[in-house]
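Sample intake sheet
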Amino acid sequence: MEKFMLIIREDLEKMAKLTSEQRFSCVPMMLEWVDSLIASGNYLVGEPLAITGRYVSKDQILSDGPFIESREGISGYEIIRAENLDQAAAIAQTCPLVQRGLAVREVRPLVTAFAVYNDQH
């Protein structure tokens, strides 16, 4: 099985309009979903991300927060195991946030640095 990152992308304008109660109402459903992925052997790790952060370059801090210039933000991730990209995408589609139209998931295969290096040399 391969490893995939499921990146949670949410509309920040919509999120800003939600009350804390509305925003966290999906937590029980998300915990059930994660439990189902654990039971199936697909789940490895995942965490929500704080809204605060920094964009940095070699010489400066480019912005005070990761979402200041964007409408869409990354609010969390999971790393799962799946047979292939199609299965990983199907798993991502079962996410309660996706099912309710509150978020989309970007599904990306993880590639080890050693594999990339060995392929190039």
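Comment: The beta strands are 2-11, 43-48, 55-56, 61-63, 72-82, 103-109. DSSP finds six helices and six strands in the chain.
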